Structures are given as C-alpha cells and as structure tokens.
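FAQ: What does a multi-protein file look like?

Like this. Sequence, then tokens, then the next protein.
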Amino acid sequence: MVDNHFLKLALDKAWFYQGLTYPNPPVGAVITDKQNNFVSCGVHIKAGTPHAEVNAIKEAYLNLTKDKEILKLTDSKDIHNYLFKKHNGIFKDKNIYVTLEPCNHFGKTPPCSHLIAELGFKKVVIGTLDTNKKASGGVEFLRQKALHVEVLKSSTCRALLEPFTLWQKGRFVFFKLAMSNNGVIDGGKITSKDSFELVHKLRDRCDLLVIGGNTVRIDRPTLDARMCNGKAPDILIYSKSKNFDSNIPLFSVPNRKVYIADNFDLLKEYKHIMIEGGEGMLKATTKLVSHYLIFRSPHFKEGTAPKLALKLKELYSSCLGADRFTWFKKLDG
C-alpha cells in the first residue's frame, strides 16, 4: 500500500529522534508529487525548532524551486511567512504524509495545519491523531479548508507516540543497555562512538539519569552530555550505602543534582528518565520501566549474558554506525 510505504519512511526517520524531542513528540513527514514519487522528508529534531511538516515542506520547496534563500531561515515562523509569500501554488498537486496529526495551535511555533492548508496540498495522510488536546484539531481544520485528509489509525505510528503520551500523563522511564553480540553487558566499553553520541544526546534531553552504586564505584563515570555539548541530567545513584569517593567525576559536574537513595521514590518528581546499568539494575527496575533501548555491538566479548525473564516487543531497529539500536516495549506479565 502506497500510503503505508511513505508513512514507514517517515517513521524510520522519526525513530532516530525518539526521546530527543522532549517535551514534544517525535514526528516524521514525507512529501510526494502527483505520481507519488518521493520529493522530500523532514523530522522534528528538538522542541522549539520547526516541526517535521515544516522541515519537509522547506526541503520540498528548495528541491522544486531551487530558491536557496529559504536555507537562510531557521525559525519556524520565518519559514511559514516565506512560504506563504513564495509558494506560488507548487504544492497543489503534492501529497504529504505525517506520522502524527499536524498541530493546530500557536505555541513556540505556528500551527502546521495552517501552513498545510495555505499551501493547498492535494492529499494529507496522517498516521495517528494527536492525544494532546492543546495541539489537536488539525484534521478538523484541514477538512474545513476542503483538503482531502485520510487518517490511517496506524498502530506503528501510535507506538512512536507512546513515550510522549507517558510523559504527558506522568513520566516516561526507559532503560538504556549496551550489549555485545553474544549478550554480555558488562566489562567496560562495548559499543561504538556513534552509539555513545546518541546516548549523550539522550542524556541532554532527560531530566534524570538513574544508575547503580556498584557501577559508579567500579566505572567512576562522568555521565554528562559532553559529546553533544549538552546539559548533564540530575543523577540518582541507587545504593544501600551512601559511601562514595567524592572524586568520582559525576559528582563535580556543574548545574546538576546528585541523589543517593535505596529506593526509587525520586522518580515521581521527574518526567523523562533514563536508567543505565547492568544485571542488578535491570532486575531492580523491572516494574518501573516501560521501554528498553538496546545498543548491540557486532563484536563478541568475554563474559556471561544475563538471564532475565523480560517479555519485550520490538518497536524499531536500525543500524547506527557499526552497532544496531533497538527500541523495545515491555509487555505485561
């Protein structure tokens, strides 16, 4: 099915930004011509920056007109205004596929629904409706403007949206794990620089990072986001003992709070939470975690793979440099 093909392409792009767009949802968008040939693809990269639809439309406008002036624009409002003046009807026979219902409110950026309506797309295909009442209403607005809109109610698009739904209602807690090809998860560095960079980007967006006391004592980590020049999240060290060497680097990172506790009550005060650690932390946090992000190296490593009775559903998997990263959802039971 053509619609599912282009939505999958948009989804594949958006999954690379899962957790990085907090507090916004990750979204992907694809634009095709009247013969349904690919024209452009855009994703939402970070809260406060242009949404996926705007990035896709900006790229499509450049590809279709060769007008490089639009490349000078990075603010979403400026891009909207430029396209309002310059589009000259070039999108009237184009289709746009979006994983999530276009926003319909003025927030940090103007509503994407208004831009899509103004450009007059031939067809708008939407993966799933927005669960955020403040931003929803895009479908109704576009139909009022006489655009042809299809909502596929895609389960794969809803899966992409689940972390956003969780932190909207309370908190999203996921476990980040690095694993060798034979399942070993301890004993020092396992994965590549590409995986480390993504982890640092996630730390930059998380409110809280949870780690076990033994890992802190053995690895003496910094747990910052230096590889992306980002902020360091607050830290909860899960430990029965509060005796730690104060020279361990994580304690000296500026503008962060470090807590030590033998329970996870602190998680109630945060919304976007990443847990790192080994087998002990995996067992201790099973009831807290809804999603797992596993980085798997192609290399074998000496050691023993943990035996854990986790029931997981794979949501998305892709290569990342030499490694592979996979998002899983924990199943009940």
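And here is the next protein:
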Amino acid sequence: MKSFEDSMNELKEIVEKLQSGNLPLEESIKLFQEGTKLIAFSHKKLDQIQKKVKILVEDKDGELITKDFNTED
C-alpha cells in the first residue's frame, strides 16, 4: 500500500517532468492524469488522518477536554 509520503514524492517528480517542457504531448497527458490520481489519493489520506486527530482544549471551566480536529475552525 502506498503511503502519503510516497505519493507526494511521485507527484513532485511528475511536476518536475512536466515543468521541464521536454515531453511529447501524449506523455505529458499521461503524467498529468497520473498526477491527478495521486492528488486524489493524497486528499483521501489526509481526510482519513484528520478524522483520527484529536486536540486538547480547555473548556470555559478550565477543564481539559479532547475535541476532534477541524481545519475549518
């Protein structure tokens, strides 16, 4: 199973190849499609991780409680 880090490294390599401008159109399209799959995979992994992360916060009475991590706060 591919890790988040592996997918990010592959994506970095794809971006570098695409930015070189030395690829035939067909190869560029293939790499672009592969890159979009890696982005989707990475987003899915991050969503899974976010659901597992809890943060420790202090409530209004000064008690420490755990709360789900939410990037939208």
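Q: Is there any per-entry metadata?
A: Some entries carry free-text notes. For the entry above: The mean pLDDT is 87.
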